Amino acid sequence: AQSVTQLDSHVSVSEGTPVLLRCNYSSSYSPSLFWYVQHPNKGLQLLLKYTSAATLVKGINGFEAEFKKSETSFHLTKPSAHMSDAAEYFCVVSVGDKIIFGKGTRLHILP
Amino acid sequence: DAGITQSPRHKVTETGTPVTLRCHQTENHRYMYWYRQDPGHGLRLIHYSYGVKDTDKGEVSDGYSVSRSKTEDFLLTLESATSSQTSVYFCAISRSGSDGNEQFFGPGTRLTVL
After folding, report:
1. Phi/psi zone of residue B83: left (φ > 0), alpha (ψ -120 to 50 degrees), beta?
2. Interface mutation vs chain A, best among B102, B104, B109, most A CBs within 10 Å
């Protein structure tokens, strides 16, 4: 069975400082992992994905994530936050037809 | 942007009435999904389809049914709407499981059941 846990429901950072959104997963098989972003009143957009190639994955808008099998983690990072990064972020684990969403982390950017 | 539309975008209805939401895609993707999004729960899968007339239940399927008679259309029906089904509903599509199920999402339908 698969599961995904986003460790923080809310994260606040100042503009220009690093962002870290944490995600742990559980899977009996080699999973695919994704991060999606949802801006207010919008649909979800793919940020990046891991599908068993390079463990460090680069996405759009300067985000990246590292797959760490030993820690069962797939944390999302960005070196310098921008006001436009304020949104909700979802970590997703997928095995075969099974797709499980985390409950989301709302990122607040302080001026 | 992936060619996914949802209709209606907003709907207000009364308890006990039937409601049908439509998802339409122009990408010819095999998989289609219906999710509901509620505060504190993230997205939860209601039903999905892996081909025409091939559907399966998700984690919150009670009170919902689906149909897919054409590749491009996936309908979600609430046979008798309840207030607990007030939510935002998202449709998603993906090519297949072979690319890790990367999904593309529609704009959402906000449903209010009074």
Report:
1. alpha
2. B102
Which among B101, B99, B36 is positioned nearest to B66, based on CA atoms?
B36
Q: Which of B35, B42, B56 sits opposite A104 (nearest CB)?
A: B42
The answer for residues whose C-beta is within 8 angstroms of residue A14's C-beta and 6 or more apart is: A81, A109, A110, A111
Beta carbons of B41 and A45 less than 8 Å apart:
no
Q: What is the pLDDT of residue B100?
A: 63
Q: Is A84 helix (H, G, I), strand (E, B) or coil?
A: helix
> Residue for token digits 């906000």?
B110
- What are A26-72's pLDDT values in tens digits? 988 888 899 999 998 888 999 999 987 788 999 999 999 999 999 99
Distance, in Å, from the CA atom of B15 to the CA atom of A89, rounded to the nearest integer, reads 32
B102 contacts in A (CB within 8 Å)? 34, 46, 49
Interface of A with B (CB under 8 A): 9, 32, 34, 36, 42-46, 49-51, 90, 94, 96-97, 99, 101-104
Q: Which residue has the higher pLDDT, B3 or B1?
A: B3
| Amino acid occupying residue B109 | T
Which residue, A111, A67, A97, A95, is CA-closest to A2? A95
Residue-wise pLDDT tens digits, A9-35: 999 999 999 999 999 999 888 888 999
